[in-house]
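Collaboration report, partner site 2.

Our partner group contributed sequences for two proteins of shared interest, and the home lab folded both. The records are reproduced in the order in which they were received, starting with the first partner submission.
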Amino acid sequence: MGKKKLPGPIERRHLIERELSTAQALRYAEAYLEEGFEVDAIAFLVKAEATDQLRVLRGRSIEAGDGFLLRAVASAMEDPPKAEEWEALSEAAARSGKEHYATDALRHAERGES
C-alpha cells in the first residue's frame, strides 16, 4: 500500500467485513500503523491473525501511556489488561504528562479492573 491514501471509514468497514487474505489484511494493518492509526490497524491485525504484532502493539500502548489503545488491543486479543500492565501504563502516562490516563490506569490497577 505504501503512501497510498488510506480507505475512508465506510470503505474500511467494508474491508473488515469481507474476506481478505492474511497478506492483504496485514498490508492494510501495516499501512494504518505507518500512518499512526494504531486503533484502525487492530481489526486488520485480528483478521490477519497477527498475534505477535498485536502483542507488540499492546506493549507500545503501555510504553506510550495510552489507556485507550491498551483497551482496544486487549479487547481484540480477548485478554483483559493485567494489574501490572495498568501500573506500567500509569507510570508511563505520568512521565508523559498524560495525567488522565495515569489516574485512570492506576484506578484500574488498584481495583484489578480491565
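Second partner submission, folded after the first:
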Amino acid sequence: MVSADLKRKLLEFRRERDWEKFHRPKDLAVSLVIEAAELLEHFQWKTDKEVADMLQGESAEGVAEEIADIAIYLTYLCHDLNLDIEEIVAGKLERNREKYPAHMVRGSAKKYNEYDNLS
C-alpha cells in the first residue's frame, strides 16, 4: 500500500512520539473502523451527483485525510503483526478468483455462496 520509504517515515514518526505503547493490534483495528466511519460520513445521505460535486470541492480534502488515516493505521497494524500487505492482498485476490470465476459472476453482486454450481 505504501512504499518502503514512506513506511519507514511513518514508523519513525510514531517512534519519535513514543506512541507504540498505544498502538496495540486491537487499538489499531478499532482506529481503522473509526476512521472508516469518518470517511463514510462524507458520503452519508448524498446522491451520486452530490458525491461527485463534493469531490470537486473543498470536501475532497477531508475525504483524502480520512483515506490517509486509514492507510496509516493499516500500515502500522500490518507492521506490528509482521504481515506483508502486498503478500496478503495478492493471496486474497487469488482466493477471490477461485470463489468468483469471472465467467460465472460477471455483472452480479451475489456472494460466492449464492451462486448455483459454484464450488
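Feedback sent to the partner group on the second submission included the following. Residues 12 and 18 are 10 Å apart (CA to CA). The chain is about 65% helix and 0% strand.
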